[in-house]
Amino acid sequence: MTRRTWRIAAAAAVGVTALALALPQAAMAGGAGSGHGGAGQCALARSTVTATAHVDAGLTERFAHYGDTGGGWTGGDSTFSLPLSGGRLGWFFSDTFLGKVNPDGSRPADAPFVNNSVVVQDAHGLRTVAGNGAGAPAGVVPPEADGRWYWVGDPASGPRGTVQLPLLQFEKTGTGSFDFRWTANRLAILDGKSLALRTIVDLPSATGINWGSWTLQQGATTYIYGVTDVDGVRSAYVARTQGRDGLTGHWTFWNGARWSASEADAVPITPNVANEFSVAPFKDGYLLVTQDTSELFSTRIVVKVGCSPTGPFTEAAELYRTPETGAQGSYANANVFTYNAHEHPELRRGNRILVTYNVNSFDNVGDVYDDVTIYRPRFVDVDLTVRR
Asked: What letters, b where the CB count within 10 A reaches 16 and e where it falls short, cover 270-295?
């Protein structure tokens, strides 16, 4: 059987890293409490941040064991998370392999493959939502009848117990692995208990910004982050809604000084981010965690800090260097690369943050079948120290 192919999302040392940059003393826009992007300062922006990182053995072993023996999810990328009702945690993935793993650690050539899935973690363990029913495997959000498919963004809690899942819609432009293009931003509304799809609605798409890289909910305000490439530099943008409707509310866009009703007015808030990143409150400011994309296929995961959800954000520390990348990496394989690092704020423990990133190979009809461990997320605990 012909092996399936999927996206390669271009992104940017084993063990501990402890690197830091002193932050500038200049005032940064907005205060952590206000979230409105006005003038102001925060102590975080005047501090020095250091980071010490190590692999999170518990989550690494849990997903490895489940992927090898569970008969559902065996690997995926994106790796967003969201608390669900009943004390559950949902792990949301884009392209996903399902099924069994061979005794030698390879995937069968006919392994089921879907464009999105959820792995639900609860007191009983992990279970996969997608592809477990009768008939052909299907994602939580299946492809359209014309073949267009969906990769997921960062999910958010919606009104009346729903889950709001940002979607990036793509279509094929040819027969090659890279012959595809983005066509629209959309939003899936999922039942909060079963995670079954209720409906899909449109999101702003006129400018080409891929919205949904991250969502940040603070009270009745939802911030939605997106990316696009300007002159070869991948930069972040931010929009927001106010009220209890979340992402289905009225969108306004940060234009560098205020919120505008026009998506065309949106301006970059920081450069060199990955397709997926995170923004979350920390101390009296905000942390932006991303893979560094200032260099091609970077191994650097960095944290930027700001005083407002709108930035500006300044690089504060290198958190980790991914050990898997390239011929000199842990796989000794020039085709292997890492991408799309971000934090999981709901799993933060004091100053210890959990960061995930994804691993893939340009030989996506060989390596990821021959070695099931390649196409799986990595989990890293990072201890932050902040000194004035």
From this structure: bebbbbbbbbbbbbebbbbbbbbbee
Mean pLDDT score, 311-328? 97
What does the alpha-carbon distance between residue 32 and residue 34 come to, in Å, rounded to a whole number?
6
pLDDT, tens only, 71-130: 999 999 999 999 999 999 999 999 999 999 999 999 999 999 999 999 999 999 999 998
- The tokens for 315 are 């690089």
Cβ-in-10-Å burial (0-12, 13-18, 19+) of 327 comes to exposed
Tokens of 212: 């949904």
pLDDT value at residue 83:
98
CB-based contact 45:315 (threshold 8 Å): no
Strands 285-291 and 300-306 turn out to be antiparallel
Residue 267 has a pLDDT of: 97
CA angle 114, 117, 122 (to 5 degrees): 150
Q: What is the pLDDT of residue 107?
A: 97
Biggest CA–CA distance in the chain, Å, is 60
Geometric angle at alpha carbon 156, from 129 and 131, rounded to 5°: 10
> How far apart, in whole angstroms, are the C-alpha atoms of residue 48 and residue 207?
37
Nearest residue to 351 (alpha-carbon basis) of 307, 378, 315, 381: 381
SS3 at position 279: strand
Q: Half-sphere exposure (CA, 13 Å, Cβ side) for 75?
A: 24
Q: How many CB atoms lie within 10 A of CB 55?
A: 17
* pLDDT digit string, tens, across residues 123-156: 999 999 985 455 678 899 999 999 999 999 999 9
Interior/surface letters 172-194, b for 16+ CB within 10 angstroms, e for the rest: eeeeeeeebeeebbbbbbbebee
Angle CA 268–325–339, to nearest 5: 30
pLDDT score for 134:
52
Confidence band (pLDDT; 50, 70, 90) for 177? confident
63: left (phi over 0), alpha (psi -120 to 50) or beta: alpha
Give me the amino acid identity at 22.
Answer: A
